[in-house]
Fold this sequence. Notes:
- The complex is a heterodimer.
- By secondary structure, chain A is mainly beta.
- Chain A has one helix spanning 28-36, and strands spanning 2-3, 13-14, 46-57, 59-62, 72-82, 87-95, 98-99, 105-111, 119-126, 129-135, 143-150, 159-168, 175-184, 190-197, 203-212.
- An eight-stranded antiparallel beta sheet of chain A has the order 3-15-5-11-12-13-8-9, with no helix packed on it. In chain A, strands 4, 6, 7, 10 and 14 form a five-stranded antiparallel beta sheet that branches. A two-stranded antiparallel ribbon of chain A has the order 1-2.
- Chain A starts with a strand and ends with a strand.
- Chain B has no helices and twelve strands.
- Chain B has an eight-stranded antiparallel beta sheet, with no helix packed on it.
- In chain B, a hairpin with a 4-residue loop joins strand 9 and strand 10 (131-139).
- The chains are: A mainly beta, B mainly beta.
Amino acid sequence: MSKSNKYGYSGVDIPTQAFGANVGKFDPAEINELVQEDKWTQYGQLELIETQTGSAVTSILFDDIKEDIYNVHFMTMTNYSGTVLNTEARIRFYENGVEESGNVYEFAYLYPESGGTAGESRTTGISHLRAGYSLGVGSNRVSNSYQYFYNLGDASKYSFQTMQVTGMSTDASTYRTVFGSGVLTQASKVDKIKLYYDGGGTFDSTVSLYGIRYS
Amino acid sequence: MATNLQFIKSESISTNTTAFDITDCFGVGYDVYYLAFQNFNSTSGGNTIKIRFLDSSNNPITASEYDWAYLNLNSGSSFVETKAVNQNIINFGTTGTGSALMNTSAYIYNPDDTNSYTFLSSQGANRDNLEGRKQISVLSQTSVIKGIRVDSGSTNMSEGTLSVYGVK
């Protein structure tokens, strides 16, 4: 509490302002100030950081992921299709601006298919995570996925991933889903996310990265 | 999938505890809530984290009316399916120590609705020997749910943040 002429109060103790607890009558300048201080209540905590649309590209790089603001990130990859059958959409992280390409990732994914039994993919030492794999080719065989990332900006923690994919498999008549988890097994600050294609071809997709505010 | 999240509250463990409650986070007008469990640990690794819902007085519901099923996806060993019915608590995740802890996104359905059971779906990535988890759970009561308890059994947690959002 402080005495000043603010928020519609005059000569009395001014209530402390915080998200979800704004008290008083506010002029536009005061609202702008509180927004900048992250003390103004405005809903919509799934905050878009950036959307990129790739057409015939080999990679998409998010180089300003605002890892100092968000502890949990959310990514959507829509209408992904590549030019080479049975390839992967891969993810790598950058630590302090340098792409981490060592075998320091682990993952465990399950891929149930409509035409067969579910398969397991797991490894304790590989150079990437996956955003999808064994993908088909063709405009009617696109895949869509989402990912959650945890601790990217926390240099004292491992960076974790969870993901789920829905789409067609290499067989045009077979539906596939993929879900699972991954981790970069290093306590490091991640400041960029790269989505790339492993097949020597190119891919199309629209990829959006969000931050979950107050996580 | 949510197109909008509305922040409700976030709390962190500040001292060693075996029971971490976040109260009055439900019952505020949403059908679906999103919960981000971040970096829950325990003072010994590989400890099971469990959860209970809190009733209208923010007391843990201990009736044997929880069911769950989950698949553990391990990076270094075969995947394991686990299920149980009529339990008094939900097995929810596994902690690590140091840098690799328990991180999970969960959706809670209908905690405000006295005509419906309360359902949970979640997906997590946990510990240093990576353990992913895909889970569903239900509390087969139609009572109002106001909050959630994170329970680490007999082993203390010293770290963990839980952020709660309404899905608009």
